[in-house]
Specification:
Elements: E1 7-12, H1 20-34, E2 40-45, E3 63-67, H2 84-89, E4 94-97, H3 100-104, H4 109-121, E5 125-130, H5 140-152, E6 165-168, H6 182-200, H7 202-207, E7 209-213, H8 218-228, E8 232-235, H9 242-253
Parallel strand pairs: 1-2, 1-8, 2-3, 3-4, 4-5, 5-6, 6-7, 7-8
Helix pairs in contact: 1-9, 5-6, 6-8, 8-9
Bound molecules: 2-phosphoglycolic acid.
2-phosphoglycolic acid (PGA) binds near residues 215 and 236.
């Protein structure tokens, strides 16, 4: 379960690397370094087949395993599906839900809302990804994000709200060369909390863990945390290179926000 006053850095490996051996090599370096961090939780999110490979008998307290997705089906006759129960049994603690790359492959708001509930019911922490495709002067992108949050959390009870993490990931910044500005991240951080607060109350909104994702690297990570006032980062490409990812973790851990 997520705690306040900690930074959360997720490494979303997407459909990488190509072998178990490479997965183990990346995870071992990150895991060994995690122990040295004072205020940062590290969550490695490998593809399903490598979940077992990134574990070890002794895990540092601040090193966790996340999944990039979960099935919305609870029917055992679901070919190709991976259930929340299976993930839990493998030691997974966090699950990314509604990443834009899954939405692009056809995941609907309804499916995302079902997944949010399944994840929460199984005592896993969902990381709900939201973000606009583009910006417009009349502010339609704000409605777009509000609708994504309202719809994804429509079936969530107030008592489960404390277990949710939301990642702001503007689609045009994912896999790009630069993140969006820190002002934009800060503004969206406030907006997301406001929408969440309207659903679950101000107290829940203040405690909500908000992440930013999209072209984060070691050089921009600390300023995104301080300037965007986010609680953590969802990192794609840079999480596959253990040297860069470890440097990024160091930078985040050294910031003075907490
Ligand atoms: P990126 O991906 O860091 O490679 O831009 C971020 C994400 O998709 O979560």
């Amino acid at each position: 379960m997520a705690m306040q006053n900690r930074f959360y850095v997720f490494g979303n490996w997407k459909m990488n690397p190509v072998s178990q051996e490479q997965a183990k090599a990346i995870a071992t370096k990150v895991r060994n370094f995690s122990d040295k961090l004072e205020k940062t939780e590290v969550i490695v999110c490998p593809p399903f087949p490598f979940i077992a490979s990134v574990k070890s008998r002794e895990l540092p307290k601040n090193y966790h395993i996340g999944a990039q997705s979960v099935s919305s089906s609870v029917v055992p006759s679901s070919t190709g599906a991976v259930s929340a129960l299976m993930l839990k049994d493998m030691g997974v603690e966090y699950v990314i839900v509604g990443h834009s790359e899954e939405r692009t492959r056809g995941e609907t708001d309804d499916v995302i809302s079902t997944k949010m509930n399944i994840v929460l019911e199984n005592d896993l922490t969902p990381v709900l990804c939201v973000g606009e495709k583009e910006r417009d002067e009349s502010g339609h992108y704000l409605d777009f994000i509000k609708n994504q949050i309202n719809s994804a959390l429509s079936k969530v009870s107030k008592s489960s709200a404390k277990d949710i993490i939301i990642a702001y990931e503007p689609i045009y910044a994912i896999g790009a060369s630069l993140p969006v500005s820190n002002e934009q991240i800060h503004e969206m951080n406030i907006f997301i909390r406001k929408v969440f607060g309207d659903m679950f109350g101000v107290q829940s909104a203040m405690k909500l863990i908000v992440l930013y994702g999209g072209s984060v690297n070691a050089s921009n990570s600390a300023e995104i945390i301080t300037g965007g006032k986010v609680d953590g980062l969802l990192v794609g490409r840079e999480s596959l290179d253990p040297i860069n990812f470890i440097e990024l973790l160091k930078q985040v851990d050294a910031t003075n926000r907490i």
